Amino acid sequence: MNVKAINLHLNYGRDEVLHDMNFEINEPKIYGLLGRNGAGKTSLLSLIGSFREPTSGKLLVNDEVPFENENVMQEVTLMYNKDFAGESYPPSSIVKDINRYRLNFDLEYAQQLLKKFKLEGNKAVSKLSKGKQSAFNVVVGLASRSPITIFDEVYLGMDAPARDLFYKELLKDQELHPRIIILSTHLVSEMDYLFDEVIIINEGKILLHESYDDLVSRGLTVIGSKQSVDDFAKGKEVLNEEQLGDTKSVTLYGELSEAERLSASELGLDIGPVSLHDLFIQLTKEVE
Ligand SMILES: Nc1ncnc2c1ncn2[C@@H]1O[C@H](COP(=O)(O)OP(=O)(O)OP(=O)(O)O)[C@@H](O)[C@H]1O
């Protein structure tokens, strides 16, 4: 199972929204897809979900073009904030329907999840609250057990306890049935512990694709007197600087050698970690 982008471009009319993307994901892991509003996350996911075709280049799923490809479509589930306005059936009967045409769908698991998310009643999906409709998307996405399962911000309407239940179920089910799971989200600090790998896209380009651990280990804050911090930061990639009186704090991006750590301690500098949330903000901020 894999997803590959090769010199991938996507235009809407004259607007190019994905520019020359190249990446590959091929392991059953949880991938966090991050990007600012309008970065192109949904556009990219809609190509993987075979909702549209690239303008040029290739997007391959299991080495095949997914668009209108029955084999691939059975392997991929893309859940997004669907409009359920015309949906007059309750969740319990919709999952039975889905079970008839989705190969990997696990009806029993779907029914257990409906119970956990309190979606068992006879109310039509269109009459459920927004948060409950989102929870229903989560149920369908999890129970689809698709080798490639994508959640495009479906959980945004859910309250904190429901989101927590989703994260727990996701980790539990991923352990039992490993698959490629892509989570596109703005809730970076809440969800970062779920990610094995992180892909950040910025203005339609892949900014980085790394393991969560490598990425986070590369960000650090350095705090101390202005002169010492400036000396230490010279020649390094500085993502952010703040100063209060003579005290300065910088966010650096890159590996530190043992010698550099020693020199920081000799200069009386405090070195601390940076969260993925902060790194994401710094890495994608607009240059003033
Ligand atoms: N159907 C469409 N027609 C024209 N332009 C579109 C269409 N869908 C998206 N766009 C544009 O493509 C760009 C990328 O949008 P996309 O929805 O992929 O971003 P996103 O990263 O998912 O954003 P958000 O975080 O706000 O959901 C934006 O500039 C958007 O205005």
TrEMBL record:
<dbReference type="InterPro" id="IPR003593">
    <property type="entry name" value="AAA+_ATPase"/>
</dbReference>
<feature type="domain" description="ABC transporter">
    <location>
        <begin position="3"/>
        <end position="228"/>
    </location>
</feature>
<dbReference type="Pfam" id="PF00005">
    <property type="entry name" value="ABC_tran"/>
</dbReference>
<dbReference type="InterPro" id="IPR027417">
    <property type="entry name" value="P-loop_NTPase"/>
</dbReference>
<keyword id="KW-0067">ATP-binding</keyword>
<dbReference type="GO" id="GO:0005524">
    <property type="term" value="F:ATP binding"/>
</dbReference>
<protein>
    <submittedName>
        <fullName>ABC-2 type transport system ATP-binding protein</fullName>
    </submittedName>
</protein>
<dbReference type="InterPro" id="IPR003439">
    <property type="entry name" value="ABC_transporter-like_ATP-bd"/>
</dbReference>
<dbReference type="GO" id="GO:0016887">
    <property type="term" value="F:ATP hydrolysis activity"/>
</dbReference>
<keyword id="KW-0547">Nucleotide-binding</keyword>
